[in-house]
Amino acid sequence: MTPDEALARIRRYDGRLKAFVQVFDPPLTGDVATGPTLAIKDLFDVADVPTGGGARVPLDPSPAHHAAVVERLLQAGYVAVGKTHTVELAYGGWGTNRAVGAPWNPWDSAVHRAPGGSSSGSAVAVAAGLCDVALGSDTGGSVRIPAATCGVVGLKPGRGLVSLKGVHPLSPALDTVGVLARDVATAARALAVISGPDGEAAVRGPFDAEAALAAGARGRQVAAIPLDELGEVHPEIARLYLAALDRLSAAGVGVEMVAPPQTLEHSFTPNGMLMAGEGWRIWKARIEAHADVMDPWIVRRFEVGREISDERLAQAHLQRQADQRGFHAWLSAYDALVSPTCPIPAPPIDAVDETVSPLSRLTRAANYLDLPGISVPCGLTDEGLPAGLQILGRPQDEAAIVTLGAAFEAVSGWNGRTPDLAGFCG
After folding, report:
1. Phi and psi (nearest 5°) for 382?
2. Whole-model pTM over 0.85
3. Which CATH number fits domain 3-424: 3.20.110.20, 3.30.950.10, 1.10.287.1490, 3.90.1300.10?
4. What is the pLDDT of residues 81-97, one digit of tens each?
5. Using CA atoms, how far apart are residues 153 and 241, in angstroms rounded to an integer?
6. In whole angstroms, what is the distance from residue 371 CA to residue 131 CA?
7. Is the pLDDT confidence value at 148 over 90?
8. In angstroms, rounded to a whole number, what is the distance separating the alpha carbons of residues 55 and 286?
9. Which of 38, 80, 111, 290 is deepest in the core (most CB within 10 A)?
10. Alpha-carbon separation of residue 264 from 109, 112, 334 (angstroms)
């Protein structure tokens, strides 16, 4: 869409959707402005624009430079129309924010449903057609979760492909930058732009999106986790998952129902410990200074990290390396591992239980095990709420998940479905 079209839709719908914390009018551009419209999660620095981080007190009131990925997109012709809401300090999977407010999931204008987090506003903006592509960060599922609950594509690379410069951290061992879009091709092409070495942690790439999109999926072999190995799954999510596997098979992909050596949920607790332990060490001073104006649930999560000793954290990193070696060896026999992205559809936001995190139960493994992952829409529940199919690739094999994601998208029956926004006009 053109920047004018995007801004017109933002003016029409975002008063209630609240995807954006700041709108750029006129839009932010590089030397050329011919590419897709872009939204930027408010965890990424944009020069001279406050980086709010979902907090009342900005993380940086006036950054000197764009985040590296923002700079790359602008120089490639992308046109930024604003910054989007995030869970405070990106620490939450529901998409709630008691500090500055939470966006509406656009699939229900009557009930304020959880948008998924932490890249909540980015997913809402893409799903509602307020931009073509959006940046998000993913430490335990924060790109793929809101993608699934809002009915868009969420693409998370493995580590070392995309720069983290200018992206405020949650857990340096787990953080990745990903993209959200309405279709796999748009997401893959944005990933190609932001990929490649940065002289620091990004040492791989660049990613060849066109080759991945052109490659055929017929004859590929994927492991699909049986329902009885997934823990509790909502009946509608289960139905849509099994239907998605049938569609993959019909597209010529070999689908083997097989349980991995460790359940995806096995990664949930150690991933959470790393987030809490590293996050507390990064944000301790801020939390002690501003806890009274922060989301109290975010404060509680970080304070768990206060009790994690340096020795215990070091042991967790060693255990993670061992878990990765075992899982990677098993996954080498397949092109990918598939599961539902989230085991439940988006609940009403006033029914959210902040003491649990079911939306991230199947996504944290990708971060803990350092696997690339993509969530692709796979249908609507009987209540009209989206579900996502998660495809996890072998280490550093972003190409396979893009190829498989595009192949599934072509047979999914989703066909670019979008929410009815009539109830959000204002």
Report:
1. -65, -15
2. yes
3. 3.90.1300.10
4. 999 999 999 999 999 99
5. 16
6. 28
7. yes
8. 11
9. 38
10. 33, 29, 16
Could you give the CA distance from residue 218 to residue 281 in angstroms, rounded to a whole number?
A: 47
Give the model confidence (pLDDT) of 52-73 as tens digits: 999 999 999 999 999 999 999 9
Strand partners, 390: 339, 375
Strand partners, 113: 348
- The domain segmentation of the chain, as residue ranges, is 3-424
- Could you tell me which residues come within 8 angstroms of residue 273 by beta carbon, excluding any fewer than 6 positions away? 308, 312, 313, 316
- Print the SS3 string covering the chain: CCHHHHHHHHHHHHHHHCCEEEEEEEEECCCCCCCCEEEEECCECECCECECCCCCCCCECCCCCCCHHHHHHHHCCCEEEEEECCCHHHCCCCCCCCCCCCCCCCCCCCCCECCCCCCHHHHHHHHCCCCCEEEEEECCCCCHHHHHHHCCEEEECCCCCECCCCECCCCCCCCEEEEEECCHHHHHHHHHHHECCCCCCCCCCCCCHHHHHHCCCCCCEEEECCHHHCCCCCHHHHHHHHHHHHHHHHCCCEEEECCCCCCHHHHHHHHHHHHHHHHHHHHHHHHHHHHHHCCHHHHHHHHHHHCCCHHHHHHHHHHHHHHHHHHHHHHCCCCEEEEECCCCCCCEHHHCCCCCCHHHCCCHHHHHCCCCEEEEEEEECCCCCEEEEEEEECCCCHHHHHHHHHHHHHHCCCCCCCCCCHHHCC
- Catalogue the active-site residues: 41, 118, 142
Non-local (6+) Cβ contacts of 147 within 8 A are: 116, 123, 153, 154, 180, 341, 375, 388
Residue 275 CA: distances (Å) to CA of 15, 30, 96, 419: 33, 34, 18, 33
- Tens digits of residue pLDDT in 270-299: 999 999 999 999 999 999 999 999 999 999
